Queue: 2 jobs
Job 1
Amino acid sequence: MKIRGSFAAVAVAALVVGLVAPSGVAAGKKKSGPVVVATDDPADWGANVDPTIAPAGVPLGMEILEAAIGLSEDKKDILFIIKLAGPSAGGIPELVRYGWEFSVDGNAFQLNGGRTELLRGLCNPLHTDPPCPPNVGDPTVLTNFPFFVRSGSCTVGADCVVHAWVNATFDVAENTITIPVPLEVVEAKLGSKIGPMGGLFGSIYAAPGAVVTTNGLPHDAISIHKTVKLPKK
Ligand SMILES: [Ca+2]
């Protein structure tokens, strides 16, 4: 799997912003629960660089096992769920970035974020609309809503529209990251088709994000080939 990323030459240190995300499927929680849209090798993190370093990906929170899509009980949010091999807290804040590229009835979107995105409290040169977070420099906002929902290629010099900042739940017991995306943010409705898109790394990736994210850095990624229709009831 390859990776690519976007770089955000932001402030002080060398911050970087990765992009790209995958896709998935959805299902009614009460009736069927989240639908698994892809599974992955439990020990392939870093294989793009050196197959022998895979064990390091688990404690780093970058070894992806599975991806699923669901619908919240109140039917207001599409749930994007990434299952990791570890650690329980879901990766190192500011170091690991998770991405997921998906489509909603054919329109492409991407999730991009991590446990915290404090560095992204600065205006992001990759974001053309809007270029700055709603609460620039407010740690509360950046910690509670570390995932971006955006569209566009989000590479240097290209369009990148931020549609929303959303929260994510890192489940300690299950090693899962659940990212809820309000239906209206991606113009979805019950019955919409959530399909996969291909990104720099594949449909979903976990990669170092505090450094420039490039193909050369060890990462894990999954390509998704499944489309799921959100249940109507
Ligand atoms: Ca994996």
Job 2
Amino acid sequence: MNSIVPPKQPPADAPAEASVTRPTRSEAEAAVSVLLRWVCDDPTREGLSDTPKRVVQAYEELFGGYAVDPVVLLERTFEEVAGYDEIVLLRDIRVESHCEHHMVPIIGRAHVAYLPGTRVVGISKLARVVDAYAKRLQIQERLTAQIADTIQAVLQPRGVAVVIEAGHQCMTTRGVHKTGVSMVTSRMLGAFRDQSDTRRELMAMIQAPRHSGMFES
Ligand SMILES: [Zn+2]
């Protein structure tokens, strides 16, 4: 990982690939209507008449990450490190994504850590970076790598670690129908990759008991 380059983002109103022309909203709604007929239902019946419109609206939210530039999210919030040089960990960030093979949910949680160099970032920005990449069509491996690589490239800390545990509905509600299975992926950069004691400290922090309700207000 010698040359980490933040992924290039399209402008907020552009499709992900410049070569793909974004259809109009009514074309998208018509496509949902086709799928309703494909599953052998009647798109004109009362309960379904507004469904194409609602699905397209839902997609805007579920896939809103394409309109967010994670690099910009992190760039805005550099602060002085104030002498703090230990691990910063945000754990149990809810992950809501969709698998790019079946377009069904991937639900889980992410733990994002970094070792500050000269700067720190507001912790809510780490959660926003997770969302920016999760709210796209994904595979968990790439999602994990994108979050870590972007934090590394923009913040340039001494190390970055991202661990994601998630269930994939494409294998729980269809296909092999295996429930209760979670997939765990990780990306370790810098000190988390090179120093086993730093990595051990991180894993202990991630696994430390949760005190439910203790920090909620
Ligand atoms: Zn899938």
